TrEMBL record:
Superkingdom, taxonomy of origin: Bacteria
Gene Ontology BP terms: phenylacetate catabolic process
Keyword Transmembrane helix: no
Gene3D superfamilies per UniProt: 1.20.1260.10
Organism from which the protein derives: Mycobacterium vicinigordonae
Pfam families according to UniProt: PaaA_PaaC (PF05138)
First-tier enzyme category under EC: oxidoreductase
Name listed for the protein in its UniProt record: 1,2-phenylacetyl-CoA epoxidase subunit A
Length: 321
């Protein structure tokens, strides 16, 4: 008898969730949600948070070697924004019951991933500009639709993140414009950076739709609003005119306007390379994780001190890990 009552309650909860999704409303932390929805969100938000935090490294590499005080101040602000994005996102994951300490451990152990793009090295200062233009540009394409994601805390975090990402893209483009009006060596530096980052930027949208098994369910749940291939196409269409204004060539001989589709046709990235980078064998994977672990270990005394302070002043239990 009691199990029948329980089943009715479960059905009512599932119906309530389905109604929220079909009405285009937001699911909030205290609402009932299926385990699959919760786990998919935790995985996606954690992966996003890790990407913001690891993503500080490639550009952070140039902070002490910026060519002027102005460039240093801009880059410092940008890298600091990325730390903020990571923190908003870890907070959003916490509203789903995930612990930030556990997510950090999973990142360091390699059981949770971050974007493949941050495993490539930054070889010249033009990379700072190209990351702003292409990498933050691709992030904007990915993230603007997430402002309408069905999970409230994630969608709201994305609104502020997207505003800051658009500043990041503009600062990158402005830096490249300045270099392109400089010397031949500077122009060559920009072109070299574009050649190295173009394909990895296209990989940021994830595998082709045919190899993306979770996309359909994520779209039914309103977590994702567009497929990987749709977003990749949108990015290419947005970027080609910007490349023309900048005066650089995108390294894809198959890139051509398709009048019928009203979009650009383009070549396929090297998906074998993508698989390698995602599985930990990219050029900088080991270095990125080693630096993240070292930073976490170096922060242990701060967490101990914060715990001691919380215990003595508020009687809090537990610890900052
Ligand atoms: Fe960011
Ligand atoms: Fe950014």
């Amino acid at each position: 008898m009691s199990s029948t009552v329980g089943e009715h309650q479960d059905d009512a909860l599932a119906d309530g969730f389905a109604e929220i999704i079909s009405a285009g409303l937001r699911v909030e932390p205290r609402d009932w949600m299926p385990d699959g929805y919760r786990n998919t969100l935790i995985r996606q938000i954690a992966q996003h948070a890790h990407s913001e935090i690891i993503g500080m490294q490639p550009e952070g590499n140039w902070l002490t070697r910026s060519p002027s005080l102005r460039r240093k101040a801009i880059l410092l602000a940008k890298v600091q924004d990325e730390a903020g994005h990571g923190l908003y996102l870890y907070s959003a994951a916490e509203t789903l019951g995930a612990s930030r300490a556990d997510l950090t451990i999973k990142l360091c152990e390699g059981s949770q991933k971050y974007s493949s793009i941050f495993n490539y090295p930054t070889l010249t200062y033009a990379d700072v500009g190209v990351i702003g233009w292409l990498v933050d540009g691709a992030a904007i394409c990915n993230q603007v639709p997430l402002c309408r994601s069905s999970y409230g805390p994630y969608a709201r975090a994305m609104i502020r993140v997207c505003k800051e990402e658009s500043f990041h893209q503009r600062q990158g483009y402005e830096l490249l414009m300045t270099m392109m009006s400089g010397t031949d060596a500077q122009r060559a530096m920009v072109q070299g950076a574009v050649d190295r980052w173009w394909w990895p930027a296209l990989m940021m949208f994830g595998p082709p739709d045919a190899n993306s098994p979770n996309t359909a369910q994520s779209m039914r749940w309103g977590i994702k609003r567009h497929t990987n291939d749709e977003l990749r196409q949108r990015f290419v269409d947005m970027t080609v005119p910007q490349a023309k204004v900048l005066g650089v060539t995108l390294p894809d001989p198959q890139l051509v306007w398709n009048e019928e589709r009203g979009s650009y046709d383009f070549g396929a990235p090297d998906w074998d390379e993508f698989d390698k980078v995602i599985s930990g064998q990219g050029p900088c994977n080991a270095e990125r994780i080693a630096i993240r672990k070292r930073a976490h270990d170096n922060g242990a005394w701060v967490r101990r001190a914060a715990t001691a302070f919380a215990v003595t002043t508020t009687g809090a239990k537990g610890e900052f890990r």
